[in-house]
Amino acid sequence: MSFVASMRPESACALSSGRSWKRSLLAALALAFVVAGCTQDFKPAASTPPAVASTPVRTESWARNGGAGYKLITDHYTVFTTLGPSSTRDGLNGFLEAARANYLKLTGLEGAAQPASATHGVEKRLVVYLFASREEWASLTEQITGGASDTYLKVQRGGYCYAGTCVFWDIGPSTYSVAAHEGMHQFLYHSLRQTLPVWAEEGLAVQSEGYQMRNGLVYFDARDNGSRMMTLRQVMLQDRWRPADRLLAMSASDNVQESALYGADYYSQLWAMLLLIRQDPQYAAGLARMLNDAAAGRLGEALGIDGQAWARLQHNPQAYPAVVGPRAFAHYIDPNLPAFEARYRAFATELAKLK
Fold first, then answer.
1. Residues 6+ apart with CB under 8 A from 336
2. Contact, 171 vs 158, CB < 8 A?
3. Cα–Cα distance between 168 and 54 in angstroms, integer?
4. pLDDT tens digit string along 22-41?
């Protein structure tokens, strides 16, 4: 099902993400493989009623080191930018507002009206920086990421999210694709008290990418992602398929280490996996329970992991996905992994138009 929202220039919002190593490092690594989910011949789903999300923007001046800029304020976000009025800046405002509404539909977390972090003194509005140049972006990156800056400075397109803040630079229309993917990480960070398994979070992020813009509206549809579908075809045709048990235990850094040339494979397979999960009523109900448990802070308890063990996992970038990923899938989605694997591969074959 697609989601439709207005792209009026006066609409605005921005996105940020990244509470810990999981969100910050994964975001940086993932950005190398974010691809626009656009196709040329698009028709909005006739059965989907239009929905409008529009928020007025209050524009203020922003005094910063090295120059001046603009501060764009909405109900949910504060955007700091060095871009003057432009198609990227003005269009991005409405796009991000639409994306936020789409996240609510994808996750069912409508009850998360305020970020979970707001209870810890974080301002209601989330923060994003949008720079006119990569040089400006790199300068702030060095300031806010500290010792991790070398990792983030390797990002070649768009930007990243770190410690609750998104930092982008203008790469034209593709800026929207980066923002749609990373925005889901930000939304989950501020909506959940515990981190989802990596496969679930990254899978939801790629579900957020598919969109089209027509006549001043943006239409979100997770299936409308030609780039992920084309990559999935190559995965299957070139025998690069990773079985579900491997995907469930992987981190984004594992993906880069295993396949530097084919990093996008990981995301295309998670795209297919989450499409299958979301379309099956029983699987979808399990995903909803997982999200609700993570929002309530009872994910570890539901998985039978005691508090001390859970705390240790939270600080171990390799053990967390390896332990929590498979266990969460068996608990919430399907305990019969071989049966799921057969169904998953058949679904991916049909999705990639190879059957």
1. none
2. yes
3. 22
4. 454 444 444 444 444 443 33
